[in-house]
Amino acid sequence: MNFPPRIKPRRLYPGDTLGIIAPASPGNAAAAQAGINWLKSQGYRIKTGASVHQTLGFLAGSDELRAADIHRMFASPEIDGIICLRGGYGTMRLLELLDYDLIRANPKVFVGYSDITALHLSIGQRTGLITFHGPMAASDMSRGLSEHTGSAFFRAVAGNRPIGRITNPPAAPPPAFITPGRAEGRLTGGNLSLLSATLGTPYEIDTRRKIICMEEVGEAPYRIDRMLTQLLLAGKLQTAAGLVFAVCADCDGDEDEPDFTVDQVLQERLGGLNIPVLYHLYFGHTDEKVTLPLGAKAILDRRGLAVKETVTIA
Fewer CB near the last or first residue (10 Å), C or N of the chain? Predict the structure, then answer.
Protein backbone atom coordinates (compact mmCIF):
# COMPACT_ATOMS: atom_id res chain seq x y z
CA MET A 1 0.00 0.00 0.00
CA ASN A 2 1.04 3.61 -0.50
CA PHE A 3 1.56 5.24 2.87
CA PRO A 4 0.36 8.82 3.45
CA PRO A 5 2.67 11.66 4.52
CA ARG A 6 3.37 11.71 8.24
CA ILE A 7 1.32 14.06 10.45
CA LYS A 8 2.33 15.36 13.88
CA PRO A 9 -0.49 16.14 16.34
CA ARG A 10 -0.76 19.42 18.24
CA ARG A 11 0.88 19.08 21.62
CA LEU A 12 -1.18 19.18 24.81
CA TYR A 13 -1.35 22.32 26.96
CA PRO A 14 -2.63 22.86 30.53
CA GLY A 15 -6.36 23.44 30.40
CA ASP A 16 -6.86 21.31 27.27
CA THR A 17 -9.80 18.94 27.09
CA LEU A 18 -9.03 15.23 26.85
CA GLY A 19 -11.49 12.67 25.53
CA ILE A 20 -11.53 9.31 27.34
CA ILE A 21 -12.76 6.32 25.33
CA ALA A 22 -12.90 2.54 25.79
CA PRO A 23 -12.33 1.10 22.31
CA ALA A 24 -11.70 -2.43 23.60
CA SER A 25 -12.92 -3.98 26.88
CA PRO A 26 -14.98 -2.28 29.59
CA GLY A 27 -13.21 -0.70 32.53
CA ASN A 28 -13.85 -0.83 36.25
CA ALA A 29 -15.93 2.23 37.17
CA ALA A 30 -13.84 3.09 40.24
CA ALA A 31 -10.55 2.80 38.30
CA ALA A 32 -11.97 4.86 35.46
CA GLN A 33 -12.98 7.65 37.83
CA ALA A 34 -9.63 7.54 39.61
CA GLY A 35 -7.84 7.92 36.29
CA ILE A 36 -10.07 10.82 35.30
CA ASN A 37 -9.45 12.49 38.67
CA TRP A 38 -5.69 12.15 38.20
CA LEU A 39 -5.86 13.78 34.77
CA LYS A 40 -7.95 16.61 36.22
CA SER A 41 -5.33 17.07 38.92
CA GLN A 42 -2.78 17.61 36.13
CA GLY A 43 -4.81 20.54 34.82
CA TYR A 44 -6.90 18.90 32.09
CA ARG A 45 -10.61 18.98 31.47
CA ILE A 46 -12.25 15.67 30.66
CA LYS A 47 -15.05 14.46 28.43
CA THR A 48 -15.92 10.77 28.43
CA GLY A 49 -17.21 8.83 25.47
CA ALA A 50 -20.28 6.63 25.62
CA SER A 51 -18.06 3.53 25.56
CA VAL A 52 -16.61 4.37 28.99
CA HIS A 53 -19.98 3.56 30.56
CA GLN A 54 -20.91 0.50 28.47
CA THR A 55 -20.48 -3.25 28.88
CA LEU A 56 -21.38 -5.82 26.24
CA GLY A 57 -19.79 -9.11 27.25
CA PHE A 58 -16.03 -8.64 26.88
CA LEU A 59 -16.54 -5.38 24.95
CA ALA A 60 -17.19 -1.79 26.05
CA GLY A 61 -20.34 -1.62 23.93
CA SER A 62 -21.08 -2.60 20.36
CA ASP A 63 -18.52 -2.23 17.60
CA GLU A 64 -20.57 0.59 16.09
CA LEU A 65 -20.73 2.48 19.38
CA ARG A 66 -16.99 2.19 20.03
CA ALA A 67 -16.11 3.23 16.47
CA ALA A 68 -18.51 6.19 16.74
CA ASP A 69 -16.76 7.22 19.97
CA ILE A 70 -13.44 7.37 18.15
CA HIS A 71 -15.00 9.42 15.34
CA ARG A 72 -16.67 11.86 17.74
CA MET A 73 -13.48 12.48 19.67
CA PHE A 74 -11.39 13.11 16.58
CA ALA A 75 -14.09 15.27 14.92
CA SER A 76 -15.01 17.42 17.93
CA PRO A 77 -13.25 20.81 18.04
CA GLU A 78 -13.67 20.73 21.83
CA ILE A 79 -11.36 17.71 22.21
CA ASP A 80 -7.60 18.32 22.17
CA GLY A 81 -6.35 14.79 22.79
CA ILE A 82 -7.64 11.25 23.27
CA ILE A 83 -6.62 8.74 25.95
CA CYS A 84 -7.86 5.16 26.01
CA LEU A 85 -9.36 3.81 29.21
CA ARG A 86 -7.76 0.36 29.01
CA GLY A 87 -6.94 -2.47 26.62
CA GLY A 88 -8.35 -5.97 26.88
CA TYR A 89 -9.86 -7.07 23.58
CA GLY A 90 -11.90 -5.62 20.75
CA THR A 91 -10.02 -3.05 18.67
CA MET A 92 -9.41 -5.33 15.68
CA ARG A 93 -13.19 -5.51 15.26
CA LEU A 94 -13.22 -1.76 14.59
CA LEU A 95 -10.61 -1.47 11.85
CA GLU A 96 -13.03 -1.78 8.93
CA LEU A 97 -15.48 0.65 10.57
CA LEU A 98 -13.13 3.61 11.01
CA ASP A 99 -13.21 6.74 8.87
CA TYR A 100 -9.50 7.27 8.31
CA ASP A 101 -10.10 10.40 6.22
CA LEU A 102 -11.85 11.97 9.23
CA ILE A 103 -8.95 11.05 11.52
CA ARG A 104 -6.39 12.37 9.04
CA ALA A 105 -8.26 15.67 8.80
CA ASN A 106 -8.36 16.09 12.60
CA PRO A 107 -4.97 14.96 13.95
CA LYS A 108 -4.79 14.73 17.74
CA VAL A 109 -2.70 13.11 20.44
CA PHE A 110 -3.95 9.52 20.75
CA VAL A 111 -2.62 7.37 23.63
CA GLY A 112 -2.90 3.71 24.63
CA TYR A 113 -1.16 0.32 24.54
CA SER A 114 -1.93 -3.40 24.73
CA ASP A 115 -5.00 -4.12 22.55
CA ILE A 116 -4.84 -0.49 21.34
CA THR A 117 -1.93 -1.70 19.18
CA ALA A 118 -4.36 -2.51 16.36
CA LEU A 119 -5.52 1.12 16.30
CA HIS A 120 -1.95 2.43 16.39
CA LEU A 121 -1.06 0.33 13.35
CA SER A 122 -4.17 1.06 11.30
CA ILE A 123 -4.29 4.79 12.08
CA GLY A 124 -0.56 5.24 11.58
CA GLN A 125 -0.39 3.36 8.30
CA ARG A 126 -3.58 4.86 6.84
CA THR A 127 -3.36 8.46 8.02
CA GLY A 128 0.32 9.10 8.78
CA LEU A 129 -0.55 10.34 12.28
CA ILE A 130 2.07 9.89 15.00
CA THR A 131 0.32 8.13 17.90
CA PHE A 132 1.55 7.35 21.41
CA HIS A 133 2.15 3.94 22.98
CA GLY A 134 1.72 5.02 26.57
CA PRO A 135 -0.23 4.89 29.85
CA MET A 136 -4.01 4.64 29.95
CA ALA A 137 -6.60 6.18 32.23
CA ALA A 138 -7.89 3.17 34.18
CA SER A 139 -4.89 0.84 33.76
CA ASP A 140 -2.22 3.29 34.88
CA MET A 141 -3.40 6.82 35.72
CA SER A 142 -5.88 5.48 38.27
CA ARG A 143 -2.86 4.78 40.53
CA GLY A 144 -1.09 7.98 39.58
CA LEU A 145 2.02 7.98 37.42
CA SER A 146 5.48 7.75 38.95
CA GLU A 147 7.97 10.52 38.31
CA HIS A 148 9.69 8.46 35.63
CA THR A 149 6.49 7.36 33.86
CA GLY A 150 4.82 10.76 34.18
CA SER A 151 7.87 12.65 32.97
CA ALA A 152 8.18 10.41 29.91
CA PHE A 153 4.46 10.77 29.17
CA PHE A 154 4.38 14.57 29.33
CA ARG A 155 7.68 14.88 27.47
CA ALA A 156 6.09 12.95 24.60
CA VAL A 157 2.58 14.45 24.42
CA ALA A 158 3.24 17.98 25.69
CA GLY A 159 6.90 18.60 24.91
CA ASN A 160 8.33 21.08 22.45
CA ARG A 161 11.74 19.51 21.89
CA PRO A 162 13.07 16.10 20.79
CA ILE A 163 12.38 13.33 23.31
CA GLY A 164 15.95 12.11 23.10
CA ARG A 165 17.26 9.03 24.93
CA ILE A 166 14.66 6.52 26.18
CA THR A 167 15.71 5.36 29.63
CA ASN A 168 14.60 2.79 32.16
CA PRO A 169 13.43 3.73 35.69
CA PRO A 170 16.34 4.77 37.94
CA ALA A 171 16.03 1.65 40.11
CA ALA A 172 15.99 -0.76 37.14
CA PRO A 173 18.95 -2.09 35.15
CA PRO A 174 19.48 -0.37 31.81
CA PRO A 175 18.26 -2.09 28.65
CA ALA A 176 20.78 -4.42 27.03
CA PHE A 177 21.60 -5.57 23.53
CA ILE A 178 21.10 -9.09 22.24
CA THR A 179 22.78 -7.91 19.05
CA PRO A 180 24.58 -4.57 19.15
CA GLY A 181 24.72 -2.21 16.22
CA ARG A 182 23.31 0.98 14.83
CA ALA A 183 20.01 1.54 13.02
CA GLU A 184 17.69 4.38 12.11
CA GLY A 185 14.01 4.18 11.26
CA ARG A 186 10.51 5.11 12.28
CA LEU A 187 9.09 3.44 15.38
CA THR A 188 6.27 0.95 15.00
CA GLY A 189 4.91 -2.01 16.93
CA GLY A 190 3.17 -2.66 20.22
CA ASN A 191 1.71 -5.80 21.74
CA LEU A 192 3.17 -8.95 20.18
CA SER A 193 -0.17 -10.81 20.10
CA LEU A 194 -1.75 -7.99 18.10
CA LEU A 195 1.21 -7.65 15.74
CA SER A 196 1.00 -11.32 14.81
CA ALA A 197 -2.80 -11.20 14.59
CA THR A 198 -2.65 -8.55 11.87
CA LEU A 199 -0.73 -10.81 9.48
CA GLY A 200 -2.63 -11.76 6.37
CA THR A 201 -5.08 -8.86 6.76
CA PRO A 202 -5.16 -5.47 5.01
CA TYR A 203 -3.99 -4.01 8.34
CA GLU A 204 -0.83 -6.06 8.83
CA ILE A 205 2.18 -4.31 10.24
CA ASP A 206 4.64 -2.76 7.80
CA THR A 207 8.12 -3.38 9.16
CA ARG A 208 10.31 -2.33 6.26
CA ARG A 209 13.22 -0.20 7.51
CA LYS A 210 11.34 0.37 10.79
CA ILE A 211 12.44 -0.03 14.41
CA ILE A 212 9.88 -2.50 15.75
CA CYS A 213 8.97 -2.24 19.44
CA MET A 214 7.35 -5.34 20.95
CA GLU A 215 5.91 -6.11 24.38
CA GLU A 216 3.81 -8.85 25.93
CA VAL A 217 2.13 -9.83 29.19
CA GLY A 218 1.16 -13.16 30.75
CA GLU A 219 2.32 -15.34 27.86
CA ALA A 220 4.39 -18.48 28.34
CA PRO A 221 7.78 -18.52 26.61
CA TYR A 222 6.57 -21.05 24.01
CA ARG A 223 3.75 -18.68 23.01
CA ILE A 224 6.20 -15.83 22.59
CA ASP A 225 8.36 -18.18 20.52
CA ARG A 226 5.33 -19.05 18.36
CA MET A 227 4.39 -15.43 17.71
CA LEU A 228 7.96 -14.41 16.90
CA THR A 229 8.25 -17.44 14.61
CA GLN A 230 5.05 -16.39 12.85
CA LEU A 231 6.52 -12.93 12.23
CA LEU A 232 9.76 -14.53 11.03
CA LEU A 233 7.93 -16.89 8.66
CA ALA A 234 6.08 -13.88 7.27
CA GLY A 235 9.41 -12.14 6.65
CA LYS A 236 8.48 -9.25 8.90
CA LEU A 237 11.42 -9.15 11.29
CA GLN A 238 14.07 -9.69 8.62
CA THR A 239 13.10 -6.44 6.83
CA ALA A 240 13.26 -4.28 9.97
CA ALA A 241 16.05 -1.82 10.68
CA GLY A 242 16.13 -2.87 14.34
CA LEU A 243 14.11 -4.47 17.13
CA VAL A 244 13.30 -3.43 20.70
CA PHE A 245 11.68 -5.86 23.15
CA ALA A 246 10.20 -4.68 26.43
CA VAL A 247 10.52 -6.11 29.90
CA CYS A 248 7.97 -8.91 29.56
CA ALA A 249 5.51 -8.91 32.47
CA ASP A 250 4.56 -12.30 33.98
CA CYS A 251 5.86 -14.29 31.03
CA ASP A 252 8.34 -16.78 32.44
CA GLY A 253 5.77 -19.42 33.37
CA ASP A 254 5.72 -21.93 36.20
CA GLU A 255 9.08 -22.29 37.95
CA ASP A 256 8.28 -25.98 38.61
CA GLU A 257 7.98 -26.81 34.91
CA PRO A 258 11.08 -27.16 32.71
CA ASP A 259 11.00 -24.40 30.13
CA PHE A 260 13.00 -21.85 28.22
CA THR A 261 13.02 -18.39 29.71
CA VAL A 262 11.77 -15.45 27.69
CA ASP A 263 15.34 -14.20 27.45
CA GLN A 264 16.45 -17.52 25.99
CA VAL A 265 13.63 -17.39 23.43
CA LEU A 266 14.58 -13.85 22.41
CA GLN A 267 18.25 -14.76 22.12
CA GLU A 268 17.50 -17.81 19.98
CA ARG A 269 14.79 -16.32 17.75
CA LEU A 270 16.17 -12.79 17.29
CA GLY A 271 19.92 -13.10 17.80
CA GLY A 272 20.72 -14.23 14.26
CA LEU A 273 18.96 -11.48 12.30
CA ASN A 274 22.06 -9.34 11.78
CA ILE A 275 20.22 -6.21 12.93
CA PRO A 276 20.43 -4.41 16.30
CA VAL A 277 18.18 -6.02 18.92
CA LEU A 278 17.66 -4.23 22.26
CA TYR A 279 15.68 -5.73 25.13
CA HIS A 280 14.60 -5.11 28.73
CA LEU A 281 13.19 -1.64 28.01
CA TYR A 282 10.21 -0.60 30.17
CA PHE A 283 7.34 0.34 27.83
CA GLY A 284 4.72 -2.40 28.20
CA HIS A 285 2.55 -4.01 30.87
CA THR A 286 4.79 -2.94 33.75
CA ASP A 287 4.02 -0.39 36.45
CA GLU A 288 6.80 1.82 35.10
CA LYS A 289 6.72 2.63 31.38
CA VAL A 290 7.92 5.17 28.88
CA THR A 291 5.72 6.65 26.18
CA LEU A 292 6.81 5.82 22.63
CA PRO A 293 5.76 8.05 19.70
CA LEU A 294 4.90 5.52 17.00
CA GLY A 295 5.78 6.87 13.58
CA ALA A 296 8.58 9.09 14.86
CA LYS A 297 12.18 8.92 13.65
CA ALA A 298 14.39 7.04 16.09
CA ILE A 299 17.89 5.65 16.35
CA LEU A 300 19.37 2.55 17.94
CA ASP A 301 23.04 2.76 18.85
CA ARG A 302 25.41 1.57 21.56
CA ARG A 303 23.65 3.80 24.12
CA GLY A 304 20.21 2.37 23.41
CA LEU A 305 17.09 3.88 21.84
CA ALA A 306 16.59 7.59 21.19
CA VAL A 307 13.87 9.62 19.46
CA LYS A 308 15.64 12.22 17.38
CA GLU A 309 12.82 14.65 16.63
CA THR A 310 10.03 16.66 18.19
CA VAL A 311 6.89 14.56 17.86
CA THR A 312 4.19 17.22 18.30
CA ILE A 313 3.59 20.70 16.93
CA ALA A 314 2.76 23.88 18.81
Answer: C
Query: Residues 117-133: pLDDT tens digits?
Result: 999 999 999 999 999 99
Distance (Å, whole) CA 132 – CA 140 = 15
Q: Phi and psi dihedrals of 164, rounded to 5?
A: 75, -150
Catalytic residue among 139, 215, 219, 288, which? 215
CB-hemisphere CA count at 13 Å for 4? 17
Among residues 101, 107, 83, 91, the alpha carbon closest in space to that of 9 is found at 107
204 is catalytic: no
Is 184 an active-site residue?
Answer: no
Give residue-wise pLDDT tens across range 199-256.
Answer: 999 999 999 999 999 999 999 999 999 999 999 999 999 999 999 999 998 897 666 6
* Of residues 119, 64, 120, the one with CA closest to residue 92: 119
Domains of the chain plus CATH, in order, are 17-144 (3.40.50.10740), 164-307 (3.50.30.60)
> Catalytic site residue 76?
no
Among candidate residues 133, 148, 280, 285, the one labeled active-site is: 285
Please compute the mean of the pLDDT values over residues 39-53 and round it to a whole number. Answer: 98
Spatial strand order in the sheet of 242-246: 164-165, 304-307, 297-301, 183-191, 211-215, 242-246, 277-281, 176-179
